[in-house]
Amino acid sequence: MDYLDHLEAEAIYILREVAGQFEKPALLFSGGKDSITLVHLAQKAFRPGKFPFPLVHIDTGHNFPETISYRDEMVERINEKLIVGYVQDSINQGKVVEQRGKNASRNALQTVTLLDVIEKYQFDACIGGARRDEEKARAKERIFSVRDEFGQWDPKLQRPELWSLYNGKIHKGENVRVFPISNWTELDVWNYIKREQIPLPSIYFSHKRQVITRNGQLMAAAEYLNMDEEDIITTRSVRFRTVGDMTCTAAVESEAYLIDDIIEEISSSKISERGARMDDKVSEAAMEDRKKGGYF
To answer: How far is Cα 54 from Cα 52, in angstroms, rounded to an integer?
Structure first.
């Protein structure tokens, strides 16, 4: 088999295992290419029937407009259920405190909102688009990754997954995060998107955008950034390799207007995909610390 066929078959098998083993699963949808790929794989796994789970988006309120537009268009097109949890609601309820300062971001606040959504709808499994090649904390996480009753992950207590056998047995209150494309690389995802002709938000392709340079990174000059006189706005040709909160997601200068251009660009890049995420630079263990607290 072509290697993409192998990766696709593995992901579809995992999605069907989730449907078979859990009572109330959900698919976490960010509007990024990985979660879009998951939706495409779910269509292959379950059509012509409906998905056995809703899509769940945790909306920081500081998302790229192109991402939200894509999300709404996609949900209407595939006719599946979407549940949105709003970080602003968590702020209004006093469950989280909005960060202050020049580098303030709502990204870390998503964890509380996600855990509230999981509790409200009693989800026992949450499917995510994380991949092992993205970041070292994700590299050591299992495909079925158990979270305790507080949503926390203990990297020292993980189940073996020999012969691709996945154990979804959990105690009441626990839930499992499931990563069907964990074994894929960024290049695999783009080659699959090309082969399957999957539409993406426009921000993944080169476009003219007003940006500022902050901490050596190009950030979209959005109203959500706390800008001052030191922040000089310029117009550059950029694209985004990863999609998240606008306050922590940096762009890269690029002239890649087509998927083939992007694949060539990634193949020669010496910077990882998550190298453009400011939230990963807080500390050496930033991602692992967030996962231990219940992050995606």
So the answer is: 7
